[in-house]
Amino acid sequence: MTPLLEASAKGDAEELRALIDGGADLGVTTADGNNALWLACASGRPEAIRTLIDAGVEVDHRNPDGATALIYAASAGKAEVVTLLLRHGANPALETVDGFCALDLASTVECLASLRKAHARREVRASRPTEGAPSAPSETT
Length: 141
Fold this sequence. Notes:
Blueprint: H1 3-10, H2 13-21, H3 36-43, H4 46-55, H5 69-75, H6 79-87, H7 102-105, H8 109-127
Helix pairs in contact: 1-2, 1-3, 2-4, 3-4, 3-5, 5-6, 6-8
């Protein structure tokens, strides 16, 4: 493993900042195809997660199975991590190659609640007309 991946797995935000400042490659992955964010999420350390996100790590990186850090965190019951990832734009609708999203795999009530709210917000945004788009003609009788 690279030093960035090792620091991510330890959840060492200070070491991550030093490596990032030194030009570490944020796109590096493990042999399983998981990025540094996944490892930081496994550590459960919010400061390490924020450090990577602020540096520009891909929040919705998908491993060969299609799993993202959000899917992992939901399935592992890491509610604080799920909330943090959602606040930083993680897409709750992404699915694994087997067709499961984070909501499907949520292993705690807290994760389930956060993901349900995120899905509801996405549905509301998707149902709103885009700015500048023509509105539907009104029916007059």
